[in-house]
Amino acid sequence: MDLIVELRNVTKRYGEHVALEDFSLGIERGEFLTLLGPSGSGKTTALRLIAGFEQPQSGQILLEGRDAISLAPYQRNVNTVFQHYALFPHLNVFRNVAFGLEERRLPQRDIRRKVRAALELVDLPGKEERLPRQLSGGEMQRVALARALVLEPAVLLLDEPLGAMDEKLRQQMQLELRRLRQRLGITFIFVTHDQGEALVMSDRVAVIHRGRLEQVGPGAEVYEAPRTRFVAEFTGVESFLDVSFVGREHGEWQFKTTASEILWSAARGESEPPTAASISVRPERLQISKAIPPSPPRNLLRGVIVETFYEGGTRRSIVEFGNGTRLIVREASLTDSTFRSDRAPGANVYVFWEPEWTLVYPRHDA
Question: Are 27 and 3 in contact (CB under 8 A)?
């Protein structure tokens, strides 16, 4: 494994507030890694520590195998792109991009060549003379990217750079950033609180919560097999059922709900789950039927639809069961006639799913 950035047991405090605690993470050379978490989780602090804008109270930060704690920001082969662009309003596009090169006192001929190449890279040729106020939001972000890339960093740090954009432009820039990283082959470390954005763009996703690393892995792994309840909730799992572990049978775990229904989960290894557990299923993995399916699945609950919501390409239904617990089901949008007859509030339905989709976590109140 070729690690270009490594944080080892890093702790960072601001007064009494612990931003990162005993935090360890390795980033491989050339990968696109996203730090994902809610506001205040510590993801931007991790980025600032890598950049050298902050210093930890303890732990190590390694860049390209070298201890970076004593290195000033300008001595680190990294560059940062911020959410609000931080362009110089009185300088045109060319001068904004050239600024770092001029600080390094490169010959003007080299500066012109590098700036033009950087602007070509971000699809902004011909905009050299424009001032930032004459650019769109997407163009300003491209200028900020060009200004960072022109210095040829080994690592590019991106601190929620798409946060101020509308949805259409945001999606466009997500694809452009991904293509740019593939073309350049440099390491991107991206910060966001948007799990959809993280899944679209990343080779790996590192989920941070209250200064600790909850899970790191490929986006599909984090989404389909969240290791903690926080990761499950943060990536879209919306409802949980309290259950008690009964035993293991035929390679599956058996649980009993508070209403004595039996539910199943695919066993994970040889260890047993907590006796008092919460289980859930991603809403798009649940299925609804007016009648018991011809080949009844292992997990089958009878309930009543209490609310439905039209969400464009999907419909979300809240199903309540006899003991008052609820599950949220998300399906591809149905025809209006089917929706009215089968998914209207008050309709009696069956909710079912396969054991492999059951997520199991220790119960909070246990």
Answer: yes
CA–CA dist 119, 92 (Å, integer)? 13
- Rounded CA-CA distance 210/41 in Å is 5
Name residue 216's beta-bridge partners.
206
Confirm if 222 and 206 have CB atoms less than 8 A apart.
Answer: no
- Are 282 and 240 in contact by the 8 Å Cβ rule? The answer is no
Listing DSSP states for 62-114 in one string gives EETTEE-TT--GGGSSEEEE-TT----TTS-HHHHHHHHHHHTT--HHHHHHH
Nearest-CA neighbor of 286 among 303, 272, 273?
303
Alpha carbon separation from 308 to 315, 342, 364 (Å, rounded): 7, 11, 28
User: Cβ(193)–Cβ(186) under 8 Å?
Assistant: no
Token match 């299923």: residue?
A: 281
The distance from CA 341 to its chain's CA centroid, rounded to whole angstroms, is 37
pLDDT in 10s for each residue of the chain, 366 residues? 799 999 999 999 999 999 999 999 999 999 999 999 999 999 999 999 999 999 999 999 999 999 999 999 989 999 998 877 788 999 999 999 999 999 889 999 999 999 999 998 888 888 999 999 999 888 888 898 889 989 989 999 999 887 767 788 788 888 888 888 888 889 999 999 999 999 999 999 999 999 999 999 999 999 999 999 999 999 999 899 999 999 998 889 999 998 889 999 998 776 888 999 999 999 999 999 999 888 888 899 999 999 998 888 888 999 999 888 999 999 887 555 555 567 889 999 999 999 999 999 998 765
3-state secondary structure (DSSP) of residue 13 = strand
Buried b (16+ CB within 10 A) or exposed e, 346-365: ebebbbbbebebbbbbebee
**Any idea where the domains of the chain sit in the sequence?**
3-234, 241-362
Contact partners, residue 291, CB within 8 Å, separation at least 6? 350
Cα separation of 222 and 204, whole Å?
9
Q: Which CATH number fits domain 241-362: 2.40.50.100, 1.25.40.10, 3.40.50.12710, 1.10.10.10?
A: 2.40.50.100
Q: What CATH number does the domain located at 3-234 have?
A: 3.40.50.300
Take residue 278 and report the two structure tokens written for it: 């919460």
